[in-house]
Design brief:
glycosidase; globular; Glyco_hydro_38_N; about 1400 residues; 7 domains; carbohydrate binding; alpha+beta
Length: about 1400
């Protein structure tokens, strides 16, 4: 017999207490049964090989086994190396399917319609089929366990398949199904406000725990596919009761460290770790080293043995980075049914092997095993505060208008909540909880990682616009109504015209405010402040807008002003020159270089680098698809070429002066790609440079537009606000030394990242030594074996704004772009050279003076801190394709001591020092600090999150992008629609306006108060025109004041409770309020709350679900804490108010299968009762009797719901039931057989059978809406009959200040009336004057109806060219009109406009 190959495996047989390791031997030519004997150092094993060729596994006893040890061994005289394996391993095979509610396909298709045809390797199908398929597999295979996650498919299934509720609940109780996530969907939280993430968690927990009757609730944030994580996410998730998280993307690039046969050990920390937020709260987290699809592909194996070999191969690789002897293997991928081999592996493998075990399992079982083993070892998971960004850089700018819309909607809804609380308290009007819950559900829906990211197909983009518009509309309407109600209570003085100015942020502020007047002023105006001071006024647009500087408007408060006629119209007047200024800023434009800002002086200091241009536009050519992966708009793919506005033609620069400030207006054309108009304004009394860039005539195809401000600050690093925190980030890698753009075919990682409301150059923390300082943004903390995990240091660093990776001295270093998604700029090595191998490597490579310095300090103090500078400057090594893993590539702070106890004490002192955002090092050795200035420059944005700061100190923000790569232009439901010029909507060929601002200050971003200033820019003052009056509120006051207001912001203020989200019939009490307070500087602080309109009594702390808990000091916040406080608001009713928000959808009745209309989440009110007719579509012949199933289900958790069912058949049809009362206990459902008879003499066609549920009894208005479901019966062959169709509208061109109509005709060939909803879809920038957003109508049987929308841009509307189309939906059918041009023309000039 000939031995071909010998391998010592990870497999064991025999008793678990004394397992035998298997050696796998391949052989050839055994003439007879042949003994196989293994011998070696402490090794003994034997078996018998069968005749012929084959493979045999030989059990081997290993004496004094030390896992990983290698020993010399022999098998039948053949030498080999035996590696000692470790018993006790378990592979947890988790059955799952990843679900996208939208992406290249639509919500309707993904939820319940689509199945891959022909079936591919993943056998993909829709959510309904997947849930039922996994349930069936579990029924037939008692060993099978699986997870369910997103509310996007769970609620539709739960409501329309209530007969499956008991089965699903039973599997949950048996521990065979785990409901995952705790979120509404898988959101990309790095692109939304923190409050959107919180409400996403509230919606997810409300449905998955309360409505589904799952009292233990989800425990794991199942964020498989998200394209970016906000650093605060683990803390927020922990605060709703989640204890773990799992995802496939974050510290590494998109496919993980095992992509392309990569070694997972390239990662610097185990796959199980504690992911810690800047707040200091964390989750036990698992990153998926082989992606979330890792275990699926063995589905294609021809045999069970092949499938088991694939699982074993994955185990052998993934175990290399496991923190314990437990490996999580996700078995599933996008839209996949149960894997065909998973249960057979579970049954077969474990009968043959003791270890490793391959078991069908749930994530909760995996995390429990990890915790148990760590506890047994007395160990803690590795603490990590690493920034898990960027992943997909294109996501921060693709479909930029949706990001602007999302930000505007978030701002509107947050303002609506806080002002509605006080409007309700002071007028007695109902707090509009249901309407605001609907707005948040739309924002949660849009936060999905294939929505807000801009990675979706064109049709999906159009559908998503309706969701963001719905959220914005509900928020803006509620906010405006609440402010109108509150303004009527203010003593605004005598006179015909007054304005009450409202401050949405919770600190006093001074800023420009503008009031819009229904009745224009005849000429100019004077503005009279509450103290009688006459203020300069800026009057525009024929007297319809008046602006002034509102000084010291109180925190979340108001200030009343009187408007009196003046003789002069004070507007913008042209002046000569190209320079403007106020008391703090001076700007100069260069007409010869596109009108860019050649000089910006702030308090006398020049901010723009010599020869540079601020406010410059740069157009980058991009590849039509990713050069390596071939993928689409989620990547930025510059190809190397770029051109800027410095070479623009037809450039004009005009300066203006007005009563309140000065302005530059610049225009030009960049080749044939775009025209631009840029406005830069300096207001007197405002320390900010306000900017607007409007892009017109955009024709880009695979072009990226960035804006630049070259404003270097010596020694500063990039700093950005994320949701509810501020962190440092690395430099972007945008350009080659020649100035050309980076070519992503050679260097794919540009490191563009998202910012929430601002980014800039500053210092988060700094290390000071040798008379100089070094800013630190991103760190690696290198720890020696055996040292207790430095969690306190990691938390202290991140509270100072420094995200950090905690790594092992013996392991790989952080900083290689081949695997790491971002780069560090500093390292901290814990332990001296005798304790830490990395310290030893650094000191060996450095000048001996640093070793001597370390020894000197240790001898003198017993502890040491030594700053070892890098070999070269950071700018020299921070280059495309950077590898910063060498011991001298980055500067290193060595923290050492004589022993571990002293080392722990010194680490504690370093952590404590970080409370001042500075680590001080006293050393004689040369610190070689480069120049450093304690200054800050920042760019504030409104919904333009993408940014990069290059190592030369130029601030870049990506404004706009056109991408032709799939799924750009994709369309599911024919006919495909395009923009009016025939381009895909992804190309963005219409007018875009971007608002941003520049601020600067001495000191770091804390000293310069950048968070407060960005909040002011993000939330402008609101002015409400009133007729004047003697309301009982003083002329100036505060609804809510936080003391101190500098370091704590108001994240949210709302009526306490979330009844819609959790299915409760209990109304909210607006006198019990929830406040979300956020510490913004990384420091501890005590807060007091007060109000000028009543008493505010703190009741205590609550979690994010608003469940109270004991807290020793509810008024104290630690660094970056997101604290939820409940309080009692005692206020006297001072007046009355009309309803603040709608209680019902515009289109009635509601459609039970709302997802088939691609309209996002459930309608307003959440559909507490749902009728469902099955089947949804059915064929029949004349004279037949149809059996339909009718179910009615309740999602209410705490009340009995009642209603009346009405069956509406086509003319001449009969049904066994026409009207029936229903009464459902909490969470109950009822099934009603329904038979329908088709007449004998009926002609072929489409015949809708409608069932309407009219709720009865005592319930909220939102819950009293009628709901219908429709079965469409296809009788015989109806030919070309259409259930729904729409005629295309004509384009609209209208002058600002006038109005026009956009109308469509909607029709049906069906033989019964059809209730439809028509959405006007148009891009962000048009919603204020094009509407209403949605209309309801009834189309008569075989008839048509006209639906019209008003296009009425006010006189102050910006001219531009957009588009509009109408989507009509009814009974599960959809029709989209063609998109037509919608242009707004400038009004005729009036006065000083």
């Amino acid at each position: 017999m000939r031995i071909l190959e010998v391998e010592s495996t990870e497999k064991f047989v025999g008793p678990a207490s004394a397992p035998l390791q298997l050696v796998r031997i391949g052989y050839r030519g055994a003439a007879e049964p042949t003994p196989v004997r293994i011998e070696g150092d402490g090794l003994a094993g034997h078996a018998v090989a069968e005749p012929g060729d084959g493979v045999i596994e030989v059990p081997v006893h290993v004496a004094d086994a030390v896992p990983g040890q290698q020993r010399n061994a022999r098998v039948n005289g053949t030498d080999f190396t035996f590696t000692v394996a470790e018993p006790g391993w378990t592979v947890f095979m988790v059955g799952h399917f990843h679900y996208d509610p939208v992406w290249w396909n639509t919500q309707a298709n993904y939820t319940s319609v689509w199945t891959e045809n022909p079936l591919g390797a993943c056998r993909q199908t829709n959510g309904f089929n997947l849930v039922r398929g996994h349930l069936d597999w579990a029924r037939d295979n008692p060993d099978y366990k699986f997870v369910l996650a997103e509310v996007d498919y769970l609620k539709p299934y739960w409501d329309t398949r209530p007969q499956d509720r008991a089965e699903l609940r039973g599997l949950i109780e048996q521990g065979r199904v785990e409901v995952m996530g705790g979120t509404y969907n898988e959101p990309s939280t790095n692109l939304t406000d923190a409050e959107t993430t919180i409400r996403n968690l509230v919606a997810g927990m409300g449905f998955q725990r309360d409505i589904m009757g799952n009292p233990t609730g989800p425990s794991t944030a199942w964020q498989l596919d998200v394209f970016g994580h906000d650093p605060q996410f683990p803390g927020l998730a922990a605060d709703v009761g989640l204890t773990s998280s799992a995802w496939a993307r974050g510290p590494f690039h998109q496919w993980g460290p095992m992509a392309d046969q990569g070694d997972p050990r390239r990662m610097q920390f185990p796959s199980e770790f504690e992911w810690i937020a800047p707040s200091g709260r964390g989750l036990l987290t698992h990153y998926m080293p082989a992606h979330y699809a890792a275990g699926w592909w063995m589905d294609a194996s021809a045999t069970l043995a092949d499938a088991e070999d694939e699982v074993y191969r994955l185990f052998a690789e993934m175990k290399k980075v496991a923190a314990t002897r437990n490996v999580l293997l996700p078995v599933g991928t996008d839209f996949t049914p149960p894997n065909r081999w998973i249960t057979e592996i579970h049954r077969d493998w474990n009968t043959r092997y003791t270890w490793p075990k391959f078991v069908c399992a749930l994530p909760s079982e995996f995390f429990a095993a990890v915790r148990a083993e760590l506890a047994q070892r007395g160990a803690d998971p590795s603490p990590q505060t690493r920034d898990m960004n960027p992943i997909y850089t294109g996501c921060h700018v693709s479909y930029i208008d949706t990001k602007q819309a999302n930000r505007a909607a978030e701002s509107a809804v947050l303002g609506a909540e806080r002002f509605a609380v006080f409007a309700a308290a002071l007028t007695g009007v109902d707090y509009p909880e249901a309407a605001l819950a609907k707005a948040w559900s739309q924002l949660s829906y849009g936060a999905h990682h294939d929505a807000i990211t801009g990675s979706e197909a064109d049709q999906v983009y159009l559908d998503l616009l309706t969701s963001w518009r719905d959220a914005w509309q509900l928020g803006a309407e509620t906010r405006d109504n609440a402010l109108a109600a509150l303004s009527g209570l203010v003593d605004s003085g005598a006179g015909d015209a007054s304005a009450v100015v409202w401050n949405p942020v919770a600190h006093d502020r001074t800023d420009i405010v503008t009031v819009r007047l229904q009745t224009p002023l005849p000429a100019g105006a004077h503005v009279i402040a509450p103290d009688g001071t006459q203020l300069p006024a800026h009057v525009e647009h024929g007297g319809t807008t008046v602006s002034w500087l509102a000084s010291d408007v109180p925190s979340l408060g108001w200030q009343a002003y009187r408007l009196t006629p003046g003789p002069d119209v004070g507007g913008w007047q042209p002046v000569t020159g190209t320079r403007i200024s106020n008391e703090l800023h001076q700007l100069t434009a260069d007409p010869e270089r596109g009108g860019g800002i050649s000089s910006w002086r702030h308090r006398g200091r020049e901010m723009v680098i010599d020869g540079g241009l601020g406010n410059q536009l740069a157009v980058y050519d991009e590849y039509p698809r990713h050069p390596q992966s071939g993928e689409g708009p989620w990547h930025l793919v510059p190809s190397g070429n770029l051109f800027t506005s410095a070479v623009a033609r037809d450039v004009t620069v005009q300066a203006y002066r007005g009563p309140l400030g000065e302005r530059l207006v610049v225009s030009g054309r960049i080749r044939t790609v775009l025209t631009y108009t840029q406005t830069v304004t300096l207001w007197q009394g405002v320390d900010r440079v306000d900017c607007t860039t409007t892009i017109d005539e955009f024709t880009g195809a695979d072009h990226l537009l960035r804006l630049r401000w070259p404003c270097p600050v010596p020694g500063a690093m990039p700093v950005a606000e994320v949701a509810d925190a501020v962190i440092g980030r690395g430099f972007g890698l945008l350009h080659e030394p020649s100035g050309r753009a980076v070519d992503t075919a050679r260097h794919p990682w540009t490191l563009d990242t998202p910012a929430n409301r601002w980014f800039g150059l500053s210092a988060t923390a700094r290390i000071s030594a040798g008379g100089g300082s070094r800013a630190v943004s991103v760190a690696e903390v290198v720890t020696p074996n055996g040292l207790t995990a430095p969690r306190a240091l990691m938390v202290a660093l991140v509270r100072a704004g420094v995200t950090a990776t905690c790594s092992d001295a013996e392991g790989p270093r952080y900083g290689n772009l081949d695997v790491d998604s971002n780069l560090p700029d500093t390292r901290i090595a814990l332990g001296g050279p005798d304790r830490n191998a990395f310290t030893r490597a650094v000191l060996t490579a450095a000048d001996p003076a640093y070793t001597a310095e370390l020894q000197r300090q240790l001898e003198r103090h017993g502890t040491a801190r030594v700053w070892v500078p890098a070999e070269t400057s950071l700018s020299e090594v921070w280059v495309p394709g950077a590898d910063l893993t060498g011991p001298r590539a980055l500067p290193v702070l060595v923290v050492a001591a004589r022993d571990d106890d002293a080392l722990h004490s010194e680490i504690t002192r370093v952590a404590e020092e970080l409370a001042s955002a500075e680590i001080v090092v006293h050393q004689d050795a040369d610190a070689a600090m480069e120049p450093f200035e304690a200054r800050t420059v920042a760019l504030l944005n409104r919904g333009v999150p993408s940014f990069a700061v290059d190592s030369a100190g130029t601030l870049h923000t990506a404004l706009l992008r056109s991408c032709t790569s799939w799924p750009s232009a994709s369309w599911t439901d024919d006919p495909r629609r395009t923009a009016p010029d025939g381009s895909a909507f992804q190309l963005q060929h219409w007018t875009h306006t971007f608002d941003y601002a520049l601020v600067a200050g001495d000191g770091d971003w804390r000293h310069a108060a950048i968070p407060a200033r960005s909040a002011e820019f993000a939330d402008p003052l609101q002015a409400v025109a009133v007729a004047g009056g003697d309301g009982r509120l003083a002329a100036s006051g505060s609804l809510l004041r936080l003391d101190p207001g500098g370091g704590v912001v108001l994240g949210a203020l709302k009526a306490a409770g979330n009844p819609t989200a959790c299915g409760s019939a209990e109304p909210v009490d607006p006198t019990t309020v929830t406040l979300r307070l956020v510490e913004t500087r990384g420091a501890d602080v005590a807060v007091t709350l007060c109000s000028d309109v009543g008493t505010l009594t703190v009741l205590g702390r609550a979690d994010l679900l608003e469940q109270s808990y004991d807290h020793p000091a509810p008024d104290r916040l630690h660094g970056y804490e997101v604290a939820t406080i409940t309080a009692r608001l005692g206020a006297e009713a001072l007046g009355a108010s009309a309803r603040l928000a709608p209680e019902a959808e515009a289109a009635q009745p509601l459609y039970a299968r709302y997802w088939l209309h691609n309209r996002g989440p459930a309608p307003l009110g959440g559909l507490p009762m749902t009728p469902a007719l099955h089947p949804h579509r059915v064929a029949a012949l004349p004279g037949t009797r149809l059996s339909l199933d009718l179910t009615v289900a309740s999602d209410c958790v705490d009340a009995v719901l009642s209603g009346t069912l009405t069956v509406q058949c086509p003319a001449g049809w009969t049904s066994t039931t026409t009207r029936q009362a229903v009464r459902l206990a909490a969470g109950d459902h009822q099934s009603i057989p329904l038979a329908v008879t088709v007449p004998d003499d009926i002609r072929p066609g489409l015949y809708p059978v409608r069932v309407r549920l009219d709720p009865t009894g005592d319930m909220s208005g939102a819950w009293r809406q009628s709901v219908e479901d429709v079965t469409v019966v296809r009788v015989a062959e109806p030919g070309r009959d259409r259930l729904l169709y729409i005629d295309d509208p004509a384009g609209v061109e209208v002058m600002a200040g006038r109005s026009a109509r956009l109308t469509v005709t909607v029709g049906t060939d069906a033989h019964a009336d059809l209730a439809v909803e028509a959405h006007l879809i148009s891009p962000w920038g048009t919603w204020e004057w094009a509407g209403p957003a949605v209309l309801g109508a009834v189309v008569p049987a075989g008839g048509r109806v006209q639906v019209g929308f008003d296009i009425a841009p006010p006189v102050w509307a910006r001219p531009g060219t957009w588009w509009a189309l109408v989507r009509v939906a009814g009974a599960g059918a959809l029709a989209y009109s063609a998109a037509v041009r919608m242009a707004v023309l400038a009004p005729a000039a009036v006065g000083g406009d």
